[in-house]
Amino acid sequence: MTEFTIPLLSGWEPRQPASPGAVAEHLRCPADERLYVLLDAARDDAVLRLLAQEECPFEPLFQGGRKERLYGVSPFLVRCRDASRLMDWATSEGLGCVVFLHSREGLRELAAAMRRLLMVRTEQHEALLFRFYDPRVLRVYLPTCDGREQGLIFAGVERYLLQATEGNALLSFDAPAERDRQARLEGRLLIRPPQMAAFDRLAREGVMDQLCDHLQRHLPDRCAELGQRETRRLVDLGMDRAAAHGLTMEQDVSSYINLMFVLGRDFDSDPALAWAGKILRDPQVEDPSDRMVLLYEEAAERLEQRPRGAGSEELRP
Questions:
Q1: Which of 74, 123, 212, 222 is most buried, by the most CB atoms less than 10 A from its CB?
Q2: Residue 117 and residue 1: Cα distance in Å, rounded?
């Protein structure tokens, strides 16, 4: 397998979006190949609307009719056509949500190969849904593939193209010249422990993104004071400290980090805020989520009693 990075902009300015025309130019495939795109209806509501409006041929990867519940959250394999609203969307605002691929196979044959990738197993024989059609997942997974895995993931596929993390480049993963043809006939993909660890890191990064966005919306001044890098570092620290207190639910972790940003990084061990640590460690309240609710209510009441105009730093040591 060969990996290329294709710049979409001169000057390489991070996060600046490329034009649909610049993207489409790099998606062109050889005459004996066809351009397809994988769309995830569960990730963007625009997918089903665009499929209903366009005449592009497509196949849902979750099998069942349009009235089936899974249809509305299915990934779709679509044969691309130039000058369509779907392609305009997929090469502009939808670029971060889609995976393009080149193939010599017909739509139905390729969809059948894609469906064989949906269910994977771990070394503990657990069966898992594999979201390979999510560019965030595929971007992490492809560089880790061994020969057998490449034979499976590239079954019927000559090339995967997806947006790079920076947002202004495409990553192109070309099928190896010598693919393990036998592998595509063997069962499911096996997700190895190092790959699971990479997916865990990816999931953590996704949660951190959401938490940072939440803080930017609700505590913009504090985030501006800290800067983007320090904000993210504190969120990372907060996730670990929340886990140490037994807080694993998303809302609980978010609440804990909110308090870190308002009361101070070490609020749970600060002698000046002993009431906070006492609530978090109260043995009389067994459920960590219940302790978090009590802590948040107590903090809100104390913050309301502060002198008008007092900043959150006044609660820090």
A1: 74
A2: 18
User: In this structure, are 142 and 264 located in the same domain?
Assistant: no
Q: How far apart are CA 172 and CA 89, in angstroms?
A: 20
CA separation for the pair 188, 129 (Å, rounded): 11
Torsional sign, CA 61, 4, 96, 55: negative
Phi then psi dihedrals of residue 57, to 5 deg? -65, 140
Can you give the pTM of this predicted structure? 0.74
- For residue 260 the two structure tokens come to 């870190």
Which strand (E) or helix (H) includes residue 59?
strand 58-60
Of 180, 130, 187, 177, whose CA–CA distance to 151 is shortest?
A: 180
Chain centre distance of CA 48? 20
What are 204's two structure tokens? 């953590």
Range of the domain at 139: 2-191
Distances (CA, A) of 217 to 35, 172, 222: 39, 35, 11
Q: How far apart are CA 19 and CA 128, in angstroms?
A: 36
Domain boundary among 142, 174, 191: 191
Mean pLDDT of 233-246: 95
User: 294 with 279: CB under 8 angstroms?
Assistant: yes
- Dmax (CA) for the chain in angstroms is 73
Number of folded domains that form the chain: 2
Q: Is 125 left (phi over 0), alpha (psi -120 to 50) or beta?
A: left
Query: Does one domain contain both 91 and 213?
Result: no
Domain co-membership, 147 together with 240: no
